[in-house]
């Protein structure tokens, strides 16, 4: 039996006036997602436990079957696992964004989707300059890592803000707390001074010429200590793999005992090659019993507030789903489609409402749901599940 979960990041949404009171999922052409819904069973899944942040690390941890209230220490250590960085017990890992700021105000959490090659040079400059505070590690595009040993005693007190939550706000009003702690002070200084260090870097001078947004700052957040997850898929006696372009999802897979495969090293998201991704997915299905394919594009377009492009992103994920189903034909298989969390266009950020999911299995049952979307799923026979109940249902089919 082959098991495949396709996660379309942030696909779920609210009804929008611009598309006649429907959601992007409801108007997208998505015959393959609907195929799963109409031949299988659907339901709603609460992936974000009460009181926790609606983020992909929390939500996908739930989907994989781990209760985030118990296992989630922060985004940093999960990404570290995805980047192949082994953390020590006394270390704290922060996610580090390259950002664009103007006059001390956050403009762009992704520094205009800077390329990995450009980012590498900027992150290396920061690393050299701040060795005594910690180490910077190069990830992909604007997503990097900062690891320090200096904050172990403050591990539960540290408060940071994700850069995508503070667009158009002053950096100074959002720095790390508690401000009076010696090393927190040093980190805040590093963040605020990074602008001076990076602004005139050759990489940024070139970007300026090309009228691209400068990567003129770093912002660290999502801190946590080393995370350990019991590799759960051994229990079921299955080998698995995760395919994603983002370190976070790869990291969760690695922590859960899956093998990771990346699609594109550099994903200028609009150019993501779905043909390649489908090919990689199909190749891995041959080698593994369990596969998670994650796609970030719908979330990116939701943050940008672009309805048309979000619909297009959903259709691209549907293309992936279609290719996978084609590749599984003739085999016994179970496939599920779901978002990790909603990223409503109106909010331009993640929310914590339950997400729709559909599961089709060659060995399973079907319910009355015909389409895959936020409202159809409410009528599904699977009802409303708590995050970590999903994987057991899915794997038992
Ligand atoms: Zn997002």
From TrEMBL:
Pathway: Carbohydrate degradation; glycolysis; pyruvate from D-glyceraldehyde 3-phosphate: step 3/5. The keyword Signal does not apply. Its EC number is 5.4.2.12. The keyword Isomerase applies. One of its GO terms (biological process) is glycolytic process. CDD domains: iPGM_like. Gene3D superfamilies: Alkaline Phosphatase, subunit A, Metalloenzyme domain. Keywords: Glycolysis, Isomerase. Residues 1-387 form the Metalloenzyme domain. GO terms for molecular function: metal ion binding; phosphoglycerate mutase activity. Coiled coil: none annotated. Pfam families: Metalloenzyme (PF01676), PhosphMutase (PF10143). It catalyses: (2R)-2-phosphoglycerate = (2R)-3-phosphoglycerate. Signal peptide: none annotated. Belongs to the BPG-independent phosphoglycerate mutase family. A-PGAM subfamily. NCBIfam families: apgM (TIGR00306), hyp_Hser_kinase (TIGR02535), PRK04200.1 (NF003242). Catalyzes the interconversion of 2-phosphoglycerate and 3-phosphoglycerate. This is phosphoglycerate mutase (2,3-diphosphoglycerate-independent). It comes from candidate division MSBL1 archaeon SCGC-AAA382C18. The lineage of its organism: Archaea, Methanobacteriati, Methanobacteriota, candidate division MSBL1.
């Amino acid at each position: 039996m082959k098991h495949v979960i396709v996660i379309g990041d942030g696909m779920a949404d609210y009804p929008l006036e611009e598309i006649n009171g429907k959601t992007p999922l409801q108007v997208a052409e998505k015959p393959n997602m609907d195929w799963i819904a109409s031949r299988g069973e659907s339901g709603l899944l609460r992936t974000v436990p009460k009181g926790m942040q609606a983020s992909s690390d929390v939500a996908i941890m739930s989907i994989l079957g781990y209760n985030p209230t118990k296992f989630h220490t922060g985004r940093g250590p999960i990404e570290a696992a995805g980047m192949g960085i082994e953390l020590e017990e006394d270390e704290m890992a922060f996610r580090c964004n390259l950002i664009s700021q103007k006059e001390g105000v956050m403009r762009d959490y992704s520094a205009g989707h800077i390329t990995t090659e450009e980012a590498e040079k900027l992150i290396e400059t920061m690393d050299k300059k701040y060795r005594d505070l910690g180490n910077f590690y190069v990830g992909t595009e604007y997503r990097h890592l900062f690891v320090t040993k200096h904050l172990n005693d403050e591990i539960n007190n540290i408060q940071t803000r994700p850069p995508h939550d503070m667009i158009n706000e002053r950096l100074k009003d959002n720095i790390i707390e508690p401000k009076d702690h010696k090393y927190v002070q040093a980190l805040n200084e590093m963040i605020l001074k990074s602008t001076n260090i990076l602004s005139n870097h050759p990489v940024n001078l070139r970007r300026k010429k090309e009228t691209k947004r400068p990567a003129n700052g770093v912002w660290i957040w999502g801190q946590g200590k080393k995370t350990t997850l019991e590799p759960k898929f051994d229990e079921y006696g299955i080998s698995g793999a995760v395919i994603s372009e983002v370190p976070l999802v790869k990291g969760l897979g690695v922590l859960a005992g899956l093998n990771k495969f990346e699609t594109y090293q550099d994903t200028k998201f609009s150019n993501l090659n779905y043909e390649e991704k489908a090919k990689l997915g199909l190749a891995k299905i041959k080698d593994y019993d369990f596969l998670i394919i994650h796609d970030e594009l719908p979330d990116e377009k939701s943050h940008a507030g672009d309805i048309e492009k979000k619909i297009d992103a959903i259709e691209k994920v549907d293309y992936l789903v279609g290719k996978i189903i084609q590749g599984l034909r003739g085999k016994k298989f179970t496939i599920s489609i779901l978002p990790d969390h909603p990223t409503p266009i109106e909010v331009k950020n993640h929310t914590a409402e339950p997400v729709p999911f559909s599961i089709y299995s060659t060995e399973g049952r079907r319910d009355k749901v015909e389409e895959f979307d936020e409202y159809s799923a409410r009528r599904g026979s699977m009802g409303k599940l708590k995050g970590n109940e999903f994987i057991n249902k899915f794997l038992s089919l």
